[in-house]
Amino acid sequence: MNLTHLDKNQRPKMVDVSDKNQTTRVAVASGYIEMSQDAYDAIVSEKTKKGPVLQTAVIAAIMGTKKTSELIPMCHPLNLSGINCDVEELTALPGFKLQVTAKLTGQTGVEMEALTGVSIGLLTIYDMVKAIDKGMIIRDVQLEKKSGGKSGDFKR
């Protein structure tokens, strides 16, 4: 099996996608952050010292999605056509679920972009309330589904 990110001399390379067809590609990723009741209550009531946590996390998730190629060495810079972020309050956890949907019409997929967006959004929540709870747990960052491209559709 040949690894696609190594050339014939076993040196790293970025995959050439110029011969691939442009298709509409969508990826959805999600993850969770679990925290103390005090941290959760501070976020929901918007009583944190650093400002509106969930709104900031959504902006960070969008920025992370857009900057994936700057963070992951072999990712192609992409012209994304849409990014959507949803935050779900999970009172029983307590914590939040963050979901990012990335979309484009292009020659390569957007799974890494959606996963990076989720990771950056959750890390932003952690950063903004770590003064209240340093024991927060970020978990289950995963691809939920993707469509488009040569490898076809995927649904967890």
UniProtKB/TrEMBL annotation:
<keyword id="KW-0501">Molybdenum cofactor biosynthesis</keyword>
<dbReference type="Pfam" id="PF01967">
    <property type="entry name" value="MoaC"/>
</dbReference>
<comment type="subunit">
    <text>Homohexamer; trimer of dimers.</text>
</comment>
<dbReference type="InterPro" id="IPR023045">
    <property type="entry name" value="MoaC"/>
</dbReference>
<comment type="pathway">
    <text>Cofactor biosynthesis; molybdopterin biosynthesis.</text>
</comment>
<feature type="binding site">
    <location>
        <begin position="74"/>
        <end position="76"/>
    </location>
    <ligand>
        <name>substrate</name>
    </ligand>
</feature>
<comment type="similarity">
    <text>Belongs to the MoaC family.</text>
</comment>
<protein>
    <recommendedName>
        <fullName>Cyclic pyranopterin monophosphate synthase</fullName>
        <ecNumber>4.6.1.17</ecNumber>
    </recommendedName>
</protein>
<feature type="domain" description="Molybdopterin cofactor biosynthesis C (MoaC)">
    <location>
        <begin position="14"/>
        <end position="149"/>
    </location>
</feature>
<comment type="function">
    <text>Catalyzes the conversion of (8S)-3',8-cyclo-7,8-dihydroguanosine 5'-triphosphate to cyclic pyranopterin monophosphate (cPMP).</text>
</comment>
<dbReference type="InterPro" id="IPR002820">
    <property type="entry name" value="Mopterin_CF_biosynth-C_dom"/>
</dbReference>
<keyword id="KW-0456">Lyase</keyword>
<feature type="binding site">
    <location>
        <begin position="112"/>
        <end position="113"/>
    </location>
    <ligand>
        <name>substrate</name>
    </ligand>
</feature>
<dbReference type="InterPro" id="IPR036522">
    <property type="entry name" value="MoaC_sf"/>
</dbReference>
<dbReference type="InterPro" id="IPR047594">
    <property type="entry name" value="MoaC_bact/euk"/>
</dbReference>
<feature type="active site">
    <location>
        <position position="127"/>
    </location>
</feature>
<dbReference type="GO" id="GO:0061799">
    <property type="term" value="F:cyclic pyranopterin monophosphate synthase activity"/>
</dbReference>
<dbReference type="GO" id="GO:0006777">
    <property type="term" value="P:Mo-molybdopterin cofactor biosynthetic process"/>
</dbReference>
